[in-house]
Amino acid sequence: MRRLSPANITWLKVIIWLAAILPFIWLLLSVDQGWFSADPAKDIQHFTGRMTLKFLLVTLLVTPVARYGKQPLLIRTRRLLGLWCFAWGTLHLLSYSFLELGVSNLRLLGSELISRPYLTLGIISWILLLALACTSTLWAQRKMGTTWQKLHNFIYLIAILAPIHYLWSVKVLSPQPVIYAAIAAILLALRYKKFRQWLR
């Protein structure tokens, strides 16, 4: 298999941008055209949440594909995928804050996040995504040294918490959140050697 070139990676990044922006355009059209159900607030929350999970899972997929497919340059797409994961996660949080609670009830956000365990998992995941996004630059990587890698290993914790948050939030168990959780579990299992080293 031919290795990807820097030009290929550039085009791949263009595809990632399209994959992130086109669903957002569809979301805006859906709101404008009334394509959602009778509860559009929930639809928007679920849509933005699923997009966050998709980008999280693809971000986790990059390393095993790069390693086993012998495509080292593929690692260069991880930062972009991670930032879009954070962007969609922020939209997910905002959709809950403004559409579910409402502008006049934003003061309830703190108590809601504490009293509802699935929301607690969600906000912990978002805070960790925020930390990873803020330290995703090469400057931060050089400045933090080995601490940078330790911090960015928290993506594995996010990969556990976020699917549980989704599973816990749905009122009726459906295949979709189970599928996301199963994919996350497989992607984490692929890193068993790394986790085993941590336990030594």
Helix proportion range: over 70%
Mean of residue pLDDT?
A: 90
Low-confidence stretches: none
- Our Rg estimate from Cα atoms comes to 18 Å
Assign the structural class, choosing from mainly alpha, mainly beta, alpha/beta, alpha+beta, or little secondary structure: mainly alpha
Following the backbone from N to C, one meets helices and strands in this order, namely: HHHHHHHHHH
Question: How can the largest sheet be summarized?
Answer: none
User: What is the oligomer described by this structure?
Assistant: single chain
Q: State which percent range the strand residues make up.
A: under 5%
Shape: globular
Contiguous helical run count:
10
Structural overview:
By secondary structure, the chain is mostly helical. Helix 2 packs antiparallel against helix 3 (78-101). The two termini are 36 Å apart. It contains 10 helices and no strands.
Summary tags:
globular; mainly alpha
